[in-house]
Amino acid sequence: xxxxxxxxxxxxxxxxxxxxxxxxxxxxxxxxxxxxxxxxxxxxxxxxxxxxxxxxxxxxxxxxxxxxxxxxxxxxxxxxxxxxxxxxxxxxxxxxxxxxxxxxxxxxxxxxxxxxxxxxxxxxxxxxxxxxxxxxx
Length: 137
Fold this sequence. Notes:
Layout: H1 13-19, H2 22-28, E1 48-52, E2 58-61, E3 65-66, E4 74-75, E5 84-89, E6 96-101, E7 107-112, E8 122-125, E9 130-134
Antiparallel strand pairs: 1-2, 1-9, 3-4, 4-8, 5-6, 6-7, 7-8
């Protein structure tokens, strides 16, 4: 974590609904998934920062993004190890590792062990769960 202590972001369901689009709410607060090849930034190749759409926490940098062929933005590492948390997901008759924002518990996606070096991980994220800020030229 960065040098500043981060506080957990807690809001009511009504507050989240007022802040987010219906699709952002469905994915981040209700653990949904956007359809492949439909969300924002799955094919974005610009340099920049991906942050949580719910609380603004920096999550991933473009330098760790890669084309996984899955139709979702994929990264091999978060911006810092404690930017995200891992949770066991037993939905859909399988066991996966769910990834959430460490600050607000927004559902972001899942991590798999079939990614490229140097980590061998594929953080397969929902595009609607993240805002992209391009680097300044």
